[in-house]
Specification:
Blueprint (H helix, E strand, L loop, with lengths): L19 H14 L9 E4 L3 E3 L2 E4 L2 E4 L2 E4 L3 E5 L12 E4 L4 E4 L1 E6 L2 E5 L5 E5 L3 E5 L13 E4 L8 E5 L3 E6 L2 E6 L3 E5 L13 E5 L4 E9 L2 E6 L3 E6 L3 E5 L5 E3 L5 E5 L13 E5 L12 E5 L3 E6 L8 E9 L7 E7 L2 E8 L6 E7 L4 E8 L9 E10 L2
Antiparallel strand pairs: 1-2, 1-6, 3-4, 4-5, 6-22, 7-8, 7-12, 9-10, 10-11, 12-17, 13-17, 14-15, 15-16, 18-19, 18-22, 19-20, 20-21, 23-33, 24-27, 25-26, 26-33, 27-32, 28-31, 28-33, 29-30, 29-32
Length: 394
């Protein structure tokens, strides 16, 4: 992702401030509106098509609805369309790998964080490699995200963690070294720095417990083999796999393109805290991205403008899946443009089925996604754009 690229979870346009309370209200509103129109079956996206049906892992490839699909042609695969379940453990998020482990924190000593990571057992990682972690299962919007220790009650405590045991921890705070009970703690934010890019050349594996791992994935009959920088060589059974996203240089999500601007003049009845676009991503375990990597919920009267990546300015197509968010009462018109010239124009109505769009892209410097009202205006109303991608031909 670029330095301006979207973070892991539901959020406002890049650069706009948002409080935890605003994020919580927006998330609730979005989840009430957005229900994936995908059936609870398997989905595979290749360079050429989106294929739905039962997905099975085979040696070196996939089988979808009884037909082989080349692994080299695959962008992502969801064996089922089910979202990750609510977490049953804490979460450890890594700064440079863009990973989340559903793991319980056991202890911290000499800069080494010990965690219990489900089927992978007890592991130790360097605290410096961890962006943040949660002591127990909590909603993403619980607590805050400033650097330091966040509690259920009271202000965050800035400072560096010194040690953790099964009941207490010590933090070097501005008031000196404090020893606190673990009860009532929510999250420790070790690093909240921005990331210029996700790890290059690594696939992303999502597990059914909500964990995500990056590494090199190979398929086997009924299983996947993952070579991971920290965990080593792993064999994971197909029943534990929620999705696999390949690192493919020929495919680029629109959400990974450098954003120039989001234009939204707004409506008379809109609140100042209403954001025109919300992003749901599978690796952040959003239930609204149950069988897609990225889902954008876009309100009418919104235009997002992005730079067109140089390597996708020739011999490329735009691919996406469009439908109205559940509960929408009005029609919308979705347009995708290159340098102001429409490439895709699609009308969506509340009773309509999801529409798969795929169109060749002319050369150009700017990409624009526009959502506006259609023939019938009604509220609430929003378009869902699933997996908007640029795909380059060889």
């Amino acid at each position: 992702m670029s330095s301006q690229s979207r973070a892991w979870h539901v959020r406002p346009p890049r650069g706009a401030p948002r409080t935890a309370g605003q994020a919580g209200r927006a998330t609730l509103a979005v989840l009430l509106l957005l229900q994936s129109a995908t059936a609870l079956g398997g989905v595979v996206q290749t360079f050429d098509a989106r294929i739905e049906g039962d997905v099975a892992f085979a040696d070196g490839g996939l089988v979808v609805a009884g037909k082989p699909v080349a692994w080299d042609e695959t962008i992502f695969a969801f064996p089922t369309g089910r979202p990750a379940p609510p977490p049953s453990a804490g979460v450890v998020r890594f700064a440079d790998l863009f990973e989340e482990w559903r793991a319980d924190v056991l202890s911290l000593a000499a800069g080494q964080l010990a965690v219990r990571f489900g089927p992978f057992g007890d592991r130790e990682v360097e605290l410096a490699s961890v962006a943040n972690f949660e002591f127990w299962p909590v909603p993403y919007n619980a607590g805050g995200w400033s650097a330091g220790l966040h509690r259920e009650k009271g202000e965050p405590i800035p400072g560096a963690l010194l040690w953790i045991d099964n009941s207490r921890l010590a933090i070097d705070s501005p008031l000196g070294i404090l020893t606190l009970p673990r009860d009532g703690l929510v999250r420790y934010v070790n690093s909240f720095r921005k990331h210029d890019s996700k790890p290059d050349g690594l696939d992303l594996l999502g597990l059914t417990d909500g964990s995500t791992l990056r590494g090199r994935v190979k398929l086997a009959a009924g299983a996947v083999h993952l070579q991971h920088a920290t965990l080593g060589s792993l064999t994971i059974q197909a029943a534990q796999v929620r999705f696999v996203a390949r690192h493919q240089r020929r495919a680029r999500s629109l959400t990974e393109c450098t954003q120039r601007a989001v234009e939204s003049p707004g409506l008379v009845a809109a609140k100042q805290t209403d954001w025109p676009i919300d992003y749901h991503v599978a690796w952040a375990n959003s239930p609204a991205a149950s069988a897609c990597l990225v889902a954008m919920l876009v309100k009418p009267k919104t235009v997002e403008r992005c730079d067109s990546p140089r390597e996708f300015r020739h011999r490329a197509v735009f691919s996406a899946r469009l439908y109205l968010a559940e509960g929408s009462r009005g029609d919308v018109r979705v347009r995708f443009m290159v340098d102001g010239k429409p490439v895709v124009q699609q009308e969506l109505a509340p009773a309509g089925a999801p529409v798969a769009v795929r169109a060749p892209l002319p050369p150009g410097n700017e990409l624009a996604l526009e959502v506006d009202f259609g023939r019938r205006i009604g509220f609430p109303c929003a378009a869902v754009i699933e997996d908007p991608m640029l795909i380059r031909s060889e």
